[in-house]
Amino acid sequence: MRKILIVDDEKMMLLWTRRILSSKYEIVTAMTGTEAIEIFQREKPDLVLSDLMMPEMDGYEMHKILEEKNSAPVPIIFMTADESDESESKGFEVGAVDYIRKPLRPDVLLKRVGNAIDHLDKIHGLETAAATDPLTKLLNKSAAQKEIGELVQNSTGALIILDLDSFKLVNDIYGHSAGDKILANFADLIRKITRENDLIGRIGGDEFIAYLHNVDDEKILVTKTKFLNEQLLSAAKKILGADMSIPLGVSAGAVFVPDEGTEFVTLYKEADSVLYDAKKQGKHSCAVYGKHHHAENHLTNTDGIYQTRLILGERNIEPGAYFVDFNIFQHIYRLLSRMCDNYRKGLTLIQFTVADENFAEKFKDTLLHSLRKSDCVSQSGKNKFLVLLMEATEEESLIVRDRIFSKLEKNLTDKISFECEKIF
């Protein structure tokens, strides 16, 4: 039910107006401008219906103070016994939505207030549409930044950025329609881990943002991220099919407010920096920014190319092939394809498919230790393994296959299919 604040210094008029409107609206009342300002801040009514001429503070001044305190238009209908056109004109100039002359006729009052409420609903609907992401029905990027930006300046909580892992594969393999279903479903999952007074939005693509009021415990964020990962994977299998093997998940970067600041831009950068860490350290997890997090893992604070090389380089290099997540494998494949095309170097792609998923982990270990450090390996789903070999012919790829199979039992090799293609 819509709420209306009625302001009038005449008690009988106040009671009469309240009686007319109370059948359709929730009513709060005030007899002075000062009292009305206090009640407005507490009750947040949808509309103010105010007498124009009151002692101490008239309706114009009260309306001006209300708008200054709320930094937004305050819808108001003025009531007055003044017959002059000048007062009506001034009322509309200061932003009144309507102007009603006393004595009040019940049918006219109800109609005028009803029209004002309908108009406000239309405006609110347009504002909501402009601030809403059409796919997920969450706040869109600009609205989320604005509203969360205001909240972090004077509240306690956690700002968290959520990014889907391997989501691009959904669009590539199943199409954008399926990808949209995943995003809409994920938005519903975020709603399940948030409360009514929390704010959530879609920044763009597969990146989301949330502000959780009064959350200051890292364990809570880790638990929520775990829930999202479990439920997202379950939902994806229902949408895409039980055989869906994309390593879909959620990585999160969070920062506590006001511990790490109260400026949105700074907080966003801090949360984004640890989101990078979560992705780098295996994905499907939550990282929380703190005083112990420094920027040495990023290129922006390096002292020179030597320091940059240390950051970029791989430490404690293990023997065997270089194993990477599938989305990174894609980037490596694309880069090597460009290099081979330019420098005419050979590149061969191999695909192993393991029929028995229970055997996949053992095969992965054998595969990695049977290849060179310059070879690149990735796993797609539970049973498919991809290998990039530099400067290898198809015949040499068969030698690689035989070397790997020689380390496995015969009954296991029968469960593995092998395909290879010379790219360049």
State the CATH superfamily name of the largest domain: Reverse transcriptase/Diguanylate cyclase domain
The helix content is 40-55%
CATH topology of the largest domain: Alpha-Beta Plaits
Cα Rg: 32 Å
Helix-strand pattern: EHEHEHEHEHHEHHEEHEHEHEHEHEEHHE
Number of DSSP helices? 15
The strand order across the widest sheet is 2-1-3-4-5
| Shape label | elongated
Largest sheet: 5 strands, parallel
Low-confidence stretches: 291-303
Instruction: Round the mean pLDDT to the nearest integer and report it.
Output: 85
Category by helix and strand content: alpha/beta
The CATH class of the largest domain: Alpha Beta
Q: How many discrete domains?
A: 3
Straight-line distance between termini: 70 Å
Instruction: Using the 3D structure, state the CATH architecture of the largest domain.
Output: 2-Layer Sandwich
What share of the residues does DSSP label as strand, in percent? Answer: 15-25%
Q: Count every beta strand, where a strand is a DSSP E run of 2 or more residues.
A: 15
Q: If you had to describe this structure to a student in words, what would you say it looks like?
A:
- The chain is α/β, with parallel strands linked by helices and about 425 residues long.
- It folds into three domains: about 5-130, Response regulator (Rossmann fold, 3-Layer(aba) Sandwich); about 140-300, Reverse transcriptase/Diguanylate cyclase domain (Alpha-Beta Plaits, 2-Layer Sandwich), CATH 3.30.70.270; about 320-420, Alpha-Beta Plaits (2-Layer Sandwich), CATH 3.30.70.270.
- It has 15 helices and 15 strands.
- Strands 2-1-3-4-5 form a five-stranded parallel β-sheet, with helices on both faces.
- The longest helix is centred in the N-terminal third of the chain and has 26 residues, at about 105-130.
- The protein is elongated, with a radius of gyration of 32 Å.
- The model is unreliable at about 290-305 (pLDDT under 50).
